[in-house]
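Hey, quick one: can you model this chain's 3D structure?
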Amino acid sequence: MKKNTKPSFMNSTFWISAILVFLAVVWGAADPAGLSAAANAAYAFTTDIFGWFYLLAVLFIVVFLFGLALSKYGSLKLGKDDEKPVYSFYAWIGMLFSTGFGAGLVFWGVAEPMSHFVHSPLALEGKTPEAARVAMQYSFFNWGIHQWSVFTIVGLVLAYFQFRKGERGEISTTLNPLLGKHGKRGIRKTINILAVIATVMGVATSLGMGILQINGGLDYLFSIPQNTPVLLTITGILLVTYLTSAVTGLDRGIKILSILNLTMALGLVVVVLALGPTTFILESFTVGIGDYIQNFFGMSLALSPYQGSTWTKEWTVAYWAWVISWSPFVGAFIARISKGRTIREFIFGVLIVPPLIATMWIGVFGGTALHMDLFKGGNIADAVQADVTSALFATFGNFPMSTLLSVIFILLIVTFLVTSADSATFILGMMTSEGHPNPSTLVKVIWGVLMSAIVAVLIISSGLQGLQTASLVTALPFTVILLLITYSLVKTIKEDHSPTIKSESVPDFVRKRKAQ
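Sure thing. Here's the predicted structure for all 516 residues.
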């Protein structure tokens, strides 16, 4: 393979992606209702018709990954056989956690279980102990192994082809065993452009939602108004912060912020566990994990064709669409930081540890909120229904040092958003620089500025929701791509390693007999 000497973003992937994103933003700014209506119609069509496909595909990926990790191929390195991991385990997990979850888990850690507490997935009566138990079970499920399986498969395939095969870090190169190393330029370009568009739209809307939550917290704590000037000010501060981090590079800015994120998150979990209803949290967490494991496959394939319920499509299918549309970004970043790890270590590290942290977060914060409403006459569920951005702040309002905890929480949201945006500028730079592992500072700055500009325009026009829904439409073609790259990985591993591994596993006396 011809090595890239200089990363260049002056290529059609960059320009076509930038133009399409620009047109979508113009549409969102000029006619937010029109964009939202069109995006909702397209998204509703894909989920209504293909919701079953999302569920089957994601479950298949989960089963495949566990099978691969436990197979004889699990010991293969993502890199040369003697290479060591570039980052420590804690730093690696911190970067996984920060990029994969972003501010989403912080946003929904209380809001989701409280939403299910009011509107039960199993059509139970709301605000009852039974509804609370099911709310925890499904919150664990939606933020658990299935979600991370999508990021894992994309990251694994990219890392294998990039570090084991010496290919460029593009989604399209993982399909070389199916497409051939040369030709099919139109298909390759389409795949890469889809990846860029999904990343830009997904990160921009997540930034926007996080900014809304920061403003909601400032309003809750300090009566700072929730209006456009304040939102734009927060956007500008975040832009300066994440561009500063992006300029310092992967090994300093993103790594340091990720370690800080993980440490702050675990610290908040410990503090709330100690100050809150500790026994209830631990017991409800234990029951929730048990319900999650016991109903793992049932929840994986739960649809309601007989009852006509739309809950699964509104929550689980929507989550799977979100993680699939985000998978090129998160997967590419995970691949970039995982050189030197074995396939087994990669799969178990990515597939188990972040979901475990997520269930701990939901168990502590969501469990605290449920306890307050069930036994203390709280009204957190009502507060969530009125304004989802205030969910965790309303929970902290019942604690000593509530203001201090809320301020730390706002700082955590900021660092999550900065890390996500910083990681996105890095990966967008890679995607639009022909897969170069170290894109130039200029291209990272360009994408960083574009993302904040998109957020600013959509905040002014109230078009965030439409663009967010539009980004989910890319999930359907990417689901097909996920299955194709899975097959591509299996095909490549077998071709590369089966003869060697099989010959090593044959006993000496058999080889001698064959030789005679």
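One thing worth noting: The two ends are 41 Å apart (CA to CA).
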